[in-house]
Amino acid sequence: MKDIFMDTAKVMSKGQVTIPKRIRDLLNLENGDYVTFIVDEWRIQIVNSKTFIEDNIQSRKQIINVRYL
């Protein structure tokens, strides 16, 4: 079973939020990295953009390989 945890951050005047360190570590985020926000009704996921893109490219390659076998 996955560990589930939550953390809290304050929204600043310009809408900025500092992602807590343990979440940055979990997502392998470094200075200058981008994050992607995925909104599904009332739930929001924050993912490492590079990892998200790489995973989607890999998934699409697998779908293409299955279709054309």
UniProtKB/TrEMBL annotation:
Transmembrane segments: none annotated. Pfam families: MazE_antitoxin (PF04014). GO terms for molecular function: DNA binding. Residues 9-54 form the SpoVT-AbrB domain. It comes from the Bacteria. InterPro entries: SpoVT-AbrB_dom (IPR007159), SpoVT-AbrB_sf (IPR037914). Keywords: DNA-binding. NCBIfam families: lp_hng_hel_AbrB. This is AbrB/MazE/SpoVT family DNA-binding domain-containing protein.
